[in-house]
Each structure stands twice: as structure tokens, then as C-alpha cells.
Hints:
The structure holds 3 protein chains of 3 kinds.
Chain A (H helix, E strand, L loop, with lengths): L3 E5 L9 H10 L9 E5 L7 E5 L8 H5 L5 E3 L5 E3 L9 H5 L35 H7 L11 H4 L6 E5 H15 L8 H5 L6
Antiparallel strand pairs in A: 1-6, 2-3, 4-5
Chain B lengths: L1 H23 L19 H8 L2 E2 L11 E3 L2 H35 L12 E3 L3 H30 L6 H33 L7 H8 L17 H25 L8 H29 L7 H5 L2 E3 H7 L1 H9 L7 E2 L5
Antiparallel strand pairs in B: 1-2, 3-4, 3-5
Chain C lengths: L1 H18 L9 H7 L33 E7 L8 E7 L2 E6 L32 E4 L2 E4 L2 H19 L4 E4 L6 H14 L4 E2 L2 H4 L1 H11 L16 E5 L3 H4 L1 H14 L2 E5 L12 E3 L6 H14 L5 H7 E2 L1 H10 L2 H8 L3 H13 L3 E5 L1 H4 L4 H14 L10 E3 L6 H6 L15 H11 L3 H7 L3 H4 L9 H6 L13 E5 L9 H10 L2 E6 L3 H9 L6 E5 L8 E4 L5 E4 L12 H12 L2 H4 L5 E2 L2 E2 L1 H11 L10 H9 L62 E2 L2 E2 L21 H7 L7 H11 L15 H8 L10 E2 L21 H4 L8 E3 L2 E3 L1 H10 L2 H4 L2 E6 L9 H4 L2 H4 L6 E4 L1 H7 L6 E6 L5 E8 L7 E5 L4 E3 L2 E2 L14 E2 L21 E7 L1
Parallel strand pairs in C: 6-7, 6-14, 8-9, 8-12, 9-10, 11-23, 12-13, 14-15, 15-16, 26-30, 27-29, 31-33
Antiparallel strand pairs in C: 1-2, 2-3, 4-5, 4-16, 17-18, 19-20, 21-22, 24-25, 26-34, 27-30, 28-29, 28-34, 31-32
Helix pairs in contact in C: 3-23, 4-23, 4-25, 6-15, 9-11, 9-12, 9-13, 9-15
Amino acid sequence: MARMKFLCDADRCIECNACVTACKNENEVPWGINRRRVVTINDGKPGERSVSMACMHCTDAPCQAVCPVNAFYTTADAVVLHSKDICIGCGYCFYACPFGAPQYPRVGNFGSRGKMDKCTYCAGGPETDNTAAEYAKYGANRLAQGKLPLCAEMCSTKSLLAGDGEIIAQIYKERVMKRGYGSGAWGWQTAYHETIKV
Amino acid sequence: MTRLLARLGHILGAAVFLFTLVAVSPGWAQQPSKDNPNASAVQEQQLLRELNRVQGLVSIPDTKEGTLIQPQGREWRHFHEVTLRWIGAIALIGMVVLLAVFYLVRGSIKLASGRAGRTILRFDTLERTVHWMTAVSFIILGISGLNITFGKPLLLPLMDPQTFTNISEALKYAHNYLSFPFTIGILFMLVMWLKDNIPDSTDVEWLKEGGGIVGHAHPPARRFNAGQKGIFWIVVLGGAAMAITGYVLMFPFYAGLNIANMQAAQIVHGVVGVLFIAVILAHIYIGTLGMEGAFEAMGSGEVDLNWAKEHHSLWVKEEMGKTGSSAHTRMTPAE
Amino acid sequence: MLIKRTEREARRGKLSAALAGRSGGGLDRRTFLRRSGVVAGGLATLGAMPLVSVRRAEAGPPAPAGQQVTIRKSICTHCSVGCTVTAEVANGVWIGQEPSWDSPINRGSHCAKGASVRELVSGDRRLKYPMKLEGGRWTRIKWDQAMDEIGKKILDVREKSGPDAVYWLGSAKMTNEGSYLFRKLGAFWGTNNTDHQARICHSTTVTGVANTWGYGAMTNSYTDIRNAKTQIIMGGNPAEAHPVSLQHLLEGAEMKKANVIVIDPRLTRTAAHATEYVRLRPGTDIPVLYGIMWHVLKNGWEDKEFIKQRVYGFEDAKKEIEKWTPDEVERVSGVPGAQLERVAKMFATEKPATLIWCMGQTQHTVGTANVRASCMALLLTGNVGAPGTGANIFRGHDNVQGATDVGLDIVTLPFYYGLVEGAWKHWSRVWEVDYDWLVSRFQDKKIMETSGIPLTRWFDATILPKDQVGQSDNVKAMFVQGHASNSITRIPESLKGLEKLELLVVADPHPTTWASLAVQAGRKDNMYLLPVATQFECKGSRVASNRALQWGEQIVKPIFESKDDLEVMYLTAKALGFADKMFKNIKVTNNLPEAEDILREMNRGSWSTGYCGQSPERLKVHMANQKDFDMITQRATTGPAKGDYYGLPWPCWGSPEVKHPGTPLLYNTNLAAMDGGGVFRARFGVERNGVNLLAEGSYSVGSELKDGYPEFTYGVLKKLGWDSELTPAELAKIQQIGGDKADTVSWSTDLSGGIQRIALKHGCIPYGNGKARMNAWNLPDPIPVHREPIYSPRVDLIQKYPTLPDAKQFRLPNIGFTVQKAAVDKGIAKQFPLILSSGRLVEYEGGGEETRSNKWLAELQQDMFIEINPADAADRGIKDGGWVWVTGTENSSKAKMKALVTERVGKGVAWMPFHFGGWFGGVDLRKNYPEGADPIVLGESANTITSYGYDPATGMQEPKVTLCQISAA
């Protein structure tokens, strides 16, 4: 059974933000909602590394656990999706998420939040696959078309990998062995309770 | 509770670590040579070990997105899903059980000297309006709050998910909006009743005698006895805590707050919330079932003189000694 | 809801099954791996993945019911890497982008800009209609009216002030056909005042590199860098400027365990991935390069054989190199000798080594000298002309290499023929117009053969007293098609020019800062904005930095009322009365000239650069069969283009029928001429002062001439006895061209192609086999000399390393020396103690109006900022993220922006991105744009602060080093 994961090889990531705009493009994500972002650590100093981050589609996802209305579900490919019909915009998933993935449109008064939006692994939502209704709420459903998330597919340096966890772990492992260094599979310990040992 | 304290300590610790990050910028490996940026690359495991979270820079204005990894989310989840439910369950069920036992043992506290037939004004219209505004808000806030914590295991299995969402969403909005009357109510209470709630020597005596709840004595009290003063301070301080943390949650990440602050706010809000509800359950009990004649104080605002004499002897004396219009008593029965 | 989820899981189950190889339908394992980022060598055990065609894509918004989704391919317009853009179009609407897996250049990848190009043609913020400035207000007008009025006014200017009073500012963001046509328009109008962005990005590279070994282009390619064992990136930040190239740099470095050395004043995103970072003071590239060469010579690491066979002027260069002892290098540049020795050792001994540069070297008053010094370092170590070596010059725009090649320039006709009489005669033959008629279009024959005014100085040509401008009158009218105004230095000065112009026409997809600054300058009328389509709405070829041509399809029709560049040029030529002559051999349908025909005309005249073999048909075959090309060698291993190099990188000799495969690596003697081999071009004669300028004992594989040889002419063929191989038709053509001097008809002027054909047949390169020059005697500094920037903080060094004396260049005085001296006398360096440099952000391009109008990009960089070192910030009480005023050395210039306090820049150095515009001196100019066409993000332009300074050889501006002061706002 495939277990979909993301892996950002920080030794390749150059913060070009292709993943960010590819996501915007593919899913028509509105201004202010950042399903994916690139964070740079030690900016401007030797040792600087950038990591592209979105929903990691965690094993035993914390967002899913804390959701007061059970809006989340995990697919057979281990993609963590949610229903915007069920979501009440309480914001709890953001507190639980180790990766800052959930995003909320600002609606109405105060800091009041609308329905949560997050990376869907380009796998849409509960609506019928590849329908206009699904696209309007969640964006594209590439997975159902046999494609991987566009962010990873368009990554400028092939830093961001998407796909079956075992395969991308193998790719990363081979890379690290070949080049002799690797700053780690960022987020894997937290998301999947595992690291890639090289 | 120890877990909670540990958790809060943790957040504090993280904040201190964060400060060190800003101040001394550690975070790259052995540093073989400053001329080889690649070899000095930051390592995830090392950052997590040293700082317990990974923080960086983003170009988008949403600076909270600079937090790359915060494993604390998983701990917060444990708090929310396990710890808070235990605290809540123990506090609420415990209080209900306690009150039931008390009721069975003690029964309703009757007026020892019967009704005098004369009443005395205990709470004027403004006071009662404020009380009930706050109380109604509190009840809805409490229910909607409990729904967030307990709705999923208790209510959701009983209904269609969409219905549950509709209810929960309505309650979320109610929770947000009712925070305002609640907060205003608390502020009014503070202003109206502060002077009568400053602890003094009579409270010591009252407490020594167990307030008459345990046993049958009627220790003297001014307008508010020590128990009521306790409620007052719990309401004011608890209310303040709820309001502050609540508004933090309502306006998330404003004023430079970070994810750790938000989690802390939610933890305080949750724990104080359930404890607050438990205390208020006791307050409701004593004001209704638990004591004859007590409800009238907030009902019509006028209490039976005998009730007043039994429970607030010093206050009645003070009131009777006054000459102003506020010190009047009604000779006609309250009914 | 729950029921639906179950359904969904069942569907997901199918995909998983597919992944496990159990059933079809989803994606097979190989496709999956490729989509997971596995490429040749990525997952060593799997090796190279055969390219599998991917199921027809249907992502993005689902197509409207019943609409067919078609795939169209074009080329990204945002840099010179040449990424293929794969577009899904339904019902005439561009509904989605898919990765271009088959492209041997980008292999599916994009950067932030490439991944968001679809937004350019949905175009909320595009200029939608022709606009005219009337009484200071923008008014919508019709195209007919606009062209009519513009034509009349331009003719009016010609009447009063002569043809040179009209400046034709073109673009590297047109198709190659567009750039060529624009140059032709200038020629038919009668001026050499035609320029484009190369002036401000790589004009110094073109001049410096061409003067070293023949052609001024990237010698190798982005993908070839994978072969390098040592990569030096000096004066470039490809991680932000050319992100997809980093795929090749980083992956190559990983596979080869290569040394990646970044030499830059900033610890850039590129430097973060380097194995060695060298921080130098801005403007001291020559000392650092000489410092490296000093260690090479000291340790005997130079490639003696290579130098003997293929290099001229080594002894002269050695004298200059020996002056740069480690102590002096450190004193001037701040780089310690030990580090440079380490770099020198890697560069000279861990070969192949390549030197990569971009605008960090070129945008200086010493730009030409900088790149010359870089070439010398390559020659000294024998790192040219083989895989993994070379001068890998990263150009800026999608077609800037092409626009340079087609001579959209002030110093040459298309394809580097220059401006001499012979060049004009050559092109009059190609264009089939009378040479005398061409002469009659100009003020006189002398100015026809004189270089034009560089775009960096258009406003000087407008505002300087008439007698200081070397033409009959000042520049009175600007026709700008696709060029930003805020990417030109000295904006406060340009405002004076904007006010004074009699006519300003801007043809662009966006109003650009020409509009906002002109209004700010007080312009009330005589200004027109013409909406032009983006390149995704046009078809044609684009030339990537590696000299490869790629044919882009039209993805969608021009939106709103915008028109194709070619149509605008046709309408202009028509309004000016020479359209019939100009389009004599080009089919025009509904005012739109056919791109294919234009390329064919280029093929017929471009023998000098080997642009003659790239017919539109061949290019289209390449685009349709991208999957057949190998990523590293760029050669097709199968299919209809088998044997060709991708995009037929020039020189692609002979006519298309000769089937030359293109030249992926220039000057590579390890390949035969017909396999893309080459030698250094014998461009500078056969000997100088008794010294042989031809190669000695070095030649390309299979050459029948086993030594150096001059360029081929009919006369040379005769001497070799090869002239008998010419067909009668070829001979007749040569004689027709040469008349009584047929012997002088050369490989570059022979329109029959016979001379090239015969040279190739004998394994020879048509341009001859010469030596590369360390001593380029025709340049202002034949051997590069360090010269301090005009505004240098190191006043103590100016005495020893002053800039060149004042002189008249390109029709205008260059008073750099006077300005430098005045700055020293006035103590400018004390008042403005910080060095100010500028550069690129990944999200934006060039002047940035286009990318700042793209909501997906604009969101990522919302504020103009300046990078400042924490120590300098602390001295000034500046906080990270706080507002600051930056003040400059000239015109009391000031600019307001946010501070980014970072160690990325060294102490004493500040840095700004150059893409912002729409603010001036702290004032927001949003109201100056036509309504609804203002970019989403506006900000202060870096060039508000930049100052005087021009390269004497090219007129390049100096945006990389000036001085400034910063204070908290």
C-alpha cells in the first residue's frame, strides 16, 4: 500500500518558491492563503538552509485528532484531507499542527476564521473526483489522475520530493550516500515518527 | 495538573530558548570552516535537540509561518484530547457528585426562623441585570465551550456530522459574540461589588465556623460573606483569565504572539474554563436548590428580612442604621 | 458524508494498487519515480529513466464540459535558461500548467516565475487598451488613432531633427523574430539608436568575450556544467536569477563531488550551497582574479601546452598578473591570500573547471575588463573548449542572447556584422533593398557607420546641450517596446529627460514605470501606451543562454486589445511609410507578419554566427521531439532529430540542408566540425607585430588542415584548390556578390553558403582557427587593469587605481574621471560611507512591473527593502523591518524602504533588489498609472540612488557599486 509523503532535501532547496506559485497556480489559491511556503533557517549566515513546507500528511495526524467536529479523514494513500462542509473554522488544527499547515481565510468580523484550507497533496476533497465542485473548494485532484502534487513535480532543483514514502526515502538515501552529506529529512521525525538513516 | 504545569514550564522554556536563538544564533554544526557554507549546514536533529523547534524566515508577511517545525503541537494535542478531558471530567462530574451528596446529607438549608414577611432590597435592577446578562452569557459560553472539548465523543455519535457541524458552528459564533456581554458583565460586577468584597475580619470568623454550611450556625456576615466573596473573586479573576485568553484566541497571532503563546492561551482557557464551570455549578446550587430564600436575591432582588438577618446579620444592621432611601425595607410581603 | 469517504478510499485504493504495479490506470512505477524526482543518477541503482509519455493532463480548473483540452508548448519568458512551459488550453483559455518532463533543459522544473506564468495572460493588471496622455490624464483611444498620431509625430521629429532624434528602444523579451524585426525597423528608419536590455546586463560580456576568442556568448551550456569538477560562480546568484540552472549545478556537483566556489560580496542563496565562499569588496573582481592567477603562475599550475597552442599575449598578461601579490590583493579586495591559493589550486588542478558569471561582473565601469580577466583565468588554466569547462555566462531574459545576436544594438547590424559599409551592403543584399536607398534613410553615411547612443544614456542625449551630442540633434522621441525605465541608473536625471521629450511611446503588456515616472516628471501629453501581448500570446523562436533556439507556440490569442509585437512593428513601419520595402520577403496577414518567414530571412543572412541552419521546420521538430534528447550532451539519440543538439545551438553552419547539428560547446577541438566541434575564431587577423595569431598545432578533430588557418574566403579556397568543389550556382552567387573582388567574399558574406559547405566538408571551421587573445589591443585596457569605482569608499586607492580619463564615447561625453575626482575632493565617501550594490530576487524580473503585477508572485515580496549589516544597522539605530531613508550621492536622491538587517552583506555594504518601481523619493505614484493597470506591489527603485559611471567600451551603467547613507525613518 502506497504511503504518500513529502520530503524536502534542504541541501538542494534554494528558496526559489516554485513550489509556492505552482501550488497557487494549480489550485487557484487566493492571496493570503499559503498552502506551501519556504522557510529559511540561519538566513544570510554560513549554514543557511531553506525548507519547503506544507502539510506533511502526518501519520496519526494531530489536526485530525484535535478537530472538534471530525472534519479530517485520511485516505488509503495516507493523505490527510478535510471537508470544508464539516469544518467550523475553530483554528485548533493550527495549534496542533507541527508544521503550520492549516490556513484560514479571514472572514467577517474580528479575527474570525473561515473554513480551514490546507495542502491537499493535490488530491482534492470529499466531492467526486475532478469535478468543478471539488476544484472550487479544494483545488486540483492530480492524484486521481495519476499525477503527483505540482509543487514537487515542478521543483526547480528536484529538492522537494513527493510520492510513496519508501521510494522517496530511498532516493534521498542514495543522494546522501552519493554526495556525502545531508541535513536530514526535515519534519519526518515529527510527522511520521521515523527518520531516514543513511 | 502536574502535566499541565510541566507543559506551561515547557512553553516558558521554549520562549527562553527562542530568545537565545535570537541573541546568540547558535545552530550550525561543528563549523569546520567559515569559508565552507555547505559543510556548516544546519541539521534538523540538532536544531530540534537544542531548541525543540525550528524557526526561520519567510518573505510573506505572515510571520507565524516562520515556525517551520513545532513538535509541541503533538503535546498540545495530548493536552487537548486527554489531559483537558480528564480535568474537565473530574471537575464537572466531581462537582455534580459532591453537590448531590451534600444535598442528600444536608438537604436544602431552610430559614431557621421562618419568613418574616418583610423583605429587604438586596440587589437593585442594575445589579440583577448585570448578573443575569453575565450568567446567561456564561451558560451559553460554557455549553459551547464544553462542546468543543466534549462534543465530539459525546454528541457527534448521536447525530449526522453535518448537523453536528451546524450546531457547533452556531455555538462557535455564539461563543465569540457572547464573550462581549460576559466581559462587560464582569467589569460591571467588579465596579459594583468590589467594595463589599474586600476581605475583612468577619470573614475569618465566618470561615472558622464553616460558613454555617457545615453545621447549623449562622456566623455574622456583612453584605457578602466569605463564601460569596470567594465566588466574587473567582468570577472576577477567572472571568478575567477567560476573557484575556479568549480574546487572544479570537484574535490569533495578533500583537506578535506566536504559536507557543497561542497554545498556552488555549490551555489556560480550557483548564480555567472547566474549573470555572464547576465552581459556578456550586454557585447555582446554593442559589437555588441548596438554600431556601437565596434565589430571591437575584430573582426579585428583595430577600426576606429573616433570611437576611440569618445570613448577613451585619449587613442588615448597617442597612437598618442608614437613613437614606436605599435602606428602606418593605413592610409588605414579597409575594 | 461518511459514505462518500468510504467511496473515496476505495478509489484511492486503486491508485495504490497501480503504484504497487498491480494494475494499470493510475501511473506506472517508472512514471511515478520520475514524478518523484528521480532522474539520471538521482537514484543510482535505477540509472537513467527512459522517458515515458504521460497521460494527457487534465489538471487545473476542470475544462468546461464538452471542451477538448489541448497542450501547447512555449518558453518561459523570465530568464535565459529556456524552460519549456507546457500549457493546457480549453476553449481558448489557458487553464493549467503541467511540468515539461520532456524538456532536456528543465525536465519538468520551474522557479517561482515559471510556475506562475499562466497568471500573465489572465492579466488583471495588464494594459488593456491603447492609452494617450491628455492634459495629464490617461484616455482610452483606438489603435488606428494611436498609430496615426504616433506616425505623424515621429515623421515630424525626423523633419525637424533628423532620423537620429528618434530612439528605438527594443527588448529581449520579444521573440527572436521580433528583436530582429525591431533592428530592421531602426535600419530602415535610418538610425543606429536601437538598443535593448543587453546593454545593461551583458554588453560588457559580449564585447569582452568576443574580443578574447571570437564570439561573445556562453561557451558551454547549463547542462554541461554537470561535467565540471570545479565550478566558480563569480558575480552571479543563479539560485535567485536562474533557479532551474541550480538543478544542473547542484546535481552535477553532487555527482562529481565537485568544488563549488562562490565569489561574491553577499553570502547569497547560491553561496549557501557552496563549498567555498569568498567575500570580496564590490568592484574588486580584477584584483581577485589576478590574485587567483598569481597563485597559478607562482605554483606552475598554468596549462602550458594550451597557452602555447591557442593563446596570444600571455607574456603581456603575465606582467600585469605579477603585480598582484597576495598582499596587494588583500589590501584592495579584502580577500586573504591563503583562501585564493586554495581557490587557484582547485581551479587550475581539479579540472574540468568552469567560471560562471552574471551581472556581478558585467555591471561596472570596468565590466568589459572584468570579463576579460575571467577569460584570461580560463585560458591560463586551459579551461575552455571542453565539457565541464568554459565561460558559462548566464544571460538575463528569455531571448537576450537572441536579441544580442540579431543586433538589436547600437554597434552592429544583425549577427555581429558591425556597421561598416560591407555590413550594410551584405544586409541590403539579404533584404533585397538598394544600398543607396538605405544610405538615404540616414542623416549621412558617416553616422550610418557610427555606433548609436546606449540606452543607459538616452536621457543624457535628451538633456545635454545639443553641441555635446554627436549627432544632428538631441534625442526628441523615444519609442520603447518592452523595456523598463527603472532598470536604468540615475532615475532622478531621467525625469528631466522624460519631461523634455517631444514624444514618448511605450508598447508593452504593462504601463511600466515609463508611465508613472513620466507623469511624475510633469508630462501632460504626447505620450502613448500601446498594449502588447506577452510572449505566450505570440509564436516564434527564443534563444536561451546556451545559444539554443526553441520555437514557442502561441498559447492563447492576445488578450484584450493587445497586439503581437510583430504587428505593432508592421503598423509602425506602415505609418512611417516603408512597410512595403521592409516586408518585401515576409508574408503579412491582417497586419501580422509571419514569424516563420522572418526566421527564414534571418537564416539567409546570418552566416557570420551560424544562424543559417535553424529553419523553423527544424526547430519545430525539436520541440515536438524533446524526449529524444539526452540531458547532459543535449544530443538526440533517436527520432527525427537524431544527431542534432537540442535547439541547434549556434553556430549551426550552412544552410538547413547541410544538417549541421549545432554547436553545444564553442571551441571544442575534441569534436569534428560536423559534430559541433570548433576552434578559437581567427577574427583578429593572422599576425600582429610579427607574432602569429593563428593556432599552432591545435585543430578540431578530423580537420584536413592540421594547424591554424585564417577565415575562409573565396581567395583562400582558391589557394587550397578547393574552389573547384563549388557548384556553378554557388560560384555565380559569389561572383555576383564580390564583383571584381570576388576573392574577398568570405564565409560570412557568401549568401550561397558554398564557402561554408566546402570548409565543413574538409573538417574545417569556416571562421578560421586562431588564438584567443589575452591581449585585446583594440580595447581601452588591452590587458585588464583594476580601476576603482567612480564612487569608491577607498579614497586611498583612487590615486593608484583611477578610472579612465574623460572621453567621448557613443556620441556622448563620458566624464567618469571628473566625477570621481570631484567625489574625492568633496569628501563624498565620508558623507556616504556605505557601498550600495543591487541585484535580483527570485520572484521578480528586471524592472519588475510585469512580475509585480502577478498576484502569485507579488504576494511573496510585498515590500522594497535594503539589506544592511547588523553592525551598520546598530550604528544607525535601524531595526530589522523598520522603515529607513536611503540617500544617494547625486541629485540629493532619497528613497524610503524597509530595512533587512542581515549578515548576508558584509560590514560597510548595503544591497537592494532592483525590481521595484512606482515610488519616487518616498512618494507612492500609484495614481500615475492608468486605472486598473497599476502593479499590485509598488516600491522605491534601486536606481533612484544609483549614480554616474559608464564602461568605456560599451556604455554599461554602474548599478553594482555606488555609495549611500542610510538612516532610520
